Predict the 3D structure of the following.
Amino acid sequence: MKMTNFIKILSFTLLIVSIVSCSVHNSSSSSGKIPPGQAKKASGSKSAKAYAPGQQKKRR
Protein backbone atom coordinates (compact mmCIF):
# COMPACT_ATOMS: atom_id res chain seq x y z
CA MET A 1 0.00 0.00 0.00
CA LYS A 2 2.82 2.42 0.81
CA MET A 3 4.45 1.84 -2.57
CA THR A 4 1.29 2.85 -4.49
CA ASN A 5 0.99 6.05 -2.44
CA PHE A 6 4.64 6.82 -3.15
CA ILE A 7 4.09 6.28 -6.89
CA LYS A 8 1.01 8.54 -6.84
CA ILE A 9 2.89 11.32 -5.03
CA LEU A 10 5.90 10.96 -7.32
CA SER A 11 3.81 11.06 -10.50
CA PHE A 12 1.86 14.07 -9.22
CA THR A 13 5.10 15.88 -8.38
CA LEU A 14 6.55 15.12 -11.82
CA LEU A 15 3.35 16.36 -13.46
CA ILE A 16 3.49 19.65 -11.54
CA VAL A 17 7.19 20.13 -12.31
CA SER A 18 6.64 19.49 -16.02
CA ILE A 19 3.75 21.98 -16.16
CA VAL A 20 5.68 24.70 -14.33
CA SER A 21 8.80 24.24 -16.46
CA CYS A 22 6.82 24.85 -19.65
CA SER A 23 5.88 28.40 -18.73
CA VAL A 24 7.14 31.24 -20.90
CA HIS A 25 9.19 34.02 -19.34
CA ASN A 26 9.59 37.24 -21.30
CA SER A 27 12.49 39.49 -20.51
CA SER A 28 12.86 43.04 -21.70
CA SER A 29 16.63 43.20 -21.61
CA SER A 30 16.78 45.16 -24.87
CA SER A 31 15.08 48.11 -23.10
CA GLY A 32 12.73 48.90 -25.96
CA LYS A 33 15.28 48.93 -28.77
CA ILE A 34 14.20 47.17 -31.93
CA PRO A 35 16.12 46.55 -35.17
CA PRO A 36 15.87 49.24 -37.87
CA GLY A 37 13.88 46.98 -40.20
CA GLN A 38 11.28 46.30 -37.54
CA ALA A 39 10.98 50.02 -36.74
CA LYS A 40 10.48 50.68 -40.45
CA LYS A 41 7.68 48.14 -40.60
CA ALA A 42 6.00 49.58 -37.51
CA SER A 43 6.07 53.15 -38.84
CA GLY A 44 5.25 52.26 -42.45
CA SER A 45 8.30 54.03 -43.89
CA LYS A 46 9.86 52.89 -47.17
CA SER A 47 13.42 53.11 -45.84
CA ALA A 48 15.01 51.92 -42.63
CA LYS A 49 17.84 54.43 -42.98
CA ALA A 50 16.30 56.84 -40.47
CA TYR A 51 16.18 54.11 -37.83
CA ALA A 52 19.72 52.76 -38.25
CA PRO A 53 22.11 54.24 -35.64
CA GLY A 54 25.03 54.37 -38.09
CA GLN A 55 23.03 56.37 -40.60
CA GLN A 56 22.04 59.27 -38.39
CA LYS A 57 23.76 62.64 -38.57
CA LYS A 58 25.82 63.66 -35.57
CA ARG A 59 24.69 66.78 -33.75
CA ARG A 60 27.13 69.30 -32.34
Remarks:
- Residues 49 and 55 are 6 Å apart (CA to CA).
